[in-house]
Structures are given as C-alpha cells and as structure tokens.
User: Which sequence fits this backbone?
C-alpha cells in the first residue's frame, strides 16, 4: 500500500511540474560560436482570376540548405545586426529545373543595417532580385523594434504539460501598425499556444510547443496591381525547446496558408481590365539548429 501511494505521489508531482517557455533564445544563435543551421522550405502560389491575363497561374519551389551561422555584429542599441552563413549546400528545385544556387563554401552575409533595412551580400557576386527573394525567405530577422516572440506568443509564466494560453493579439496587431503596410482597423488576430508534451528530439528531452494563429484583414495592393485584397492567413507552429536549456531551440516548423480574394484594375497594352480572383499561398518551413 505504501509503495502504491509513493508511486502515486511521484506521478502527480511529475505531471504537475511547470516549465518556462523561452521563444527568444534564437536571438543567441551564433553569439557563442557557430551554429549548424538546416532549413527546408516549400513555397507555393496559385492565382485564379476571371481574366485570361492572370488565369490559373501556379508557382512552386522547394528550397533546401544547410550551413554554419555565426553572429558578426549586434550593436548595443539593437539597430545593426549581421550574420555570416557558410554554405554546405543550397539547392532550389522549381517546376522547370533544379539549381545549386550557391556552391559549398560560399559565404553569405545578411542582417539589418542602421537604416533598418535587410541586407544580403555575397563576396565577389552581385545578387539578382530572385536570389535576394530566396535569401529573404531563408534568413528572416525579426525587427529589433518590434515586440519579441516571448511578448507575442509566450505564456508569461511557467506552464504545465497540456496547458494552453492565448497570444497577445493587441501586440501582434501593433506590429502591423508599426510596419505601416496594413489597415489595422480591418485586422483581426487570434491565436492559442500549448505546451503539448515532453518529447525527445535529436536525443534530447524537449518541451514540444504547438500553436495556431489566424489573421483576417484587408491587405494593400501587392500582387497583380490589385486595389484591394481581403485576406485570411493561418499559421501553425511546432517548436522543440530542450528541458535543460529552454532558451536554445533545437527545431521549429511552421505552415502558413494565405487565401486572398483580390479585385481591381489591371492595365495591359494600354487596355484596362477589371479583375477579380483568388490568390492562394502555402509555405511550409522546417528548421533544425545544432549547437
């Protein structure tokens, strides 16, 4: 009877244990030596509209790269950030061909300059717009002036396995307001995260955190010169944080689904067309970090 009681006490104690969730540990990548970085990204866009100019267009590309990241610069005011990435492999596979975009050993410098602009540089090479577009998907740096991931998505207190919490929707909306590209009066953001389980990843006991966010709103005229875009966006996250070092994420993966209903006028060869269509964008990303 005493043995059964002891097992019960130990079980209830373990199941009630609370853990600190730290999403911002990725800011430390490269601060203490080099970090192995792997990413696989599928980027898919489909456009359907009622005019032959933009009727049923589909683009998809698979980006896979691995290399070593090292932090080169991070000023005290957080305005300038620079990393160096040494390529092991960097492949892009699209509908027509497979490209070895950057050969093994290529050094790519990327970061944010003092004007808060993203920069991408490769020694002795001028980057094309397409190459910069691909690099911007692979190496995305959070604007230091924006709220941190902990502020946006964190539980703000230790949590138990199975416990969930809502994201800070107001702060998330404020990031769009600071960006200035979206009418926030039409923006609605909701989201929930959860400490889903204790699970092993790469032979380490980890906190497995899952999350889902939905963004609804009117976006500016980006694709195909549309004057108005009503957009629904969903994000689904999975993050693995080591139990013993929760500020050092080992992996994260997320899927972005964007459905846009767009309408406006398109001018082609001096003739104006009224266009209304649906834009679908799907992006799946998985990253792995080795310290």
Assistant:
């Amino acid at each position: 009877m005493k043995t059964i009681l002891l097992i019960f006490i130990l079980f209830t104690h373990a199941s009630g244990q609370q853990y600190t969730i730290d999403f911002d540990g990725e800011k430390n990548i490269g601060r203490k030596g080099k970090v192995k970085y792997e990413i696989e990204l599928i980027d898919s866009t489909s456009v359907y509209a009622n005019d032959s100019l933009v009727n049923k267009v589909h683009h998809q590309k698979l980006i896979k790269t691995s290399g070593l990241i090292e932090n080169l610069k991070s000023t005290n005011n957080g305005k300038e950030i620079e990393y160096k990435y040494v390529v092991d492999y960097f492949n892009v596979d699209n509908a027509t061909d497979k490209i070895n975009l950057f050969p093994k050993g290529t050094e790519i410098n990327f970061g944010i300059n003092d004007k808060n602009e993203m920069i991408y540089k490769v020694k002795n090479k001028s980057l094309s717009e397409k190459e910069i577009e691909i690099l911007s998907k692979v190496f995305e740096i959070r604007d230091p002036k924006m709220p941190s991931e902990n502020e946006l998505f964190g539980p703000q207190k230790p949590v138990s396995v199975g416990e969930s919490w809502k994201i800070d929707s107001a702060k998330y909306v404020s990031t769009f307001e600071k960006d200035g590209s979206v009418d926030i009066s039409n923006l609605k953001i909701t989201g929930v995260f959860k400490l889903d389980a204790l699970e092993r990843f790469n032979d380490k006991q980890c906190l497995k955190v899952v999350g889902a966010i939905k963004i609804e709103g009117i976006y500016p005229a980006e694709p195909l010169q549309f004057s108005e875009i009503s957009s629904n966006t969903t994000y689904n996250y999975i993050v693995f944080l080591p139990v013993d070092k929760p500020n050092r994420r080992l992996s994260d993966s997320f899927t972005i689904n964007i459905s846009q209903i767009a309408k406006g006028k398109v001018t082609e060869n001096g003739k104006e067309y009224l266009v209304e269509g649906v834009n679908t964008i799907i992006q799946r990303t998985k990253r792995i970090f080795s310290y």
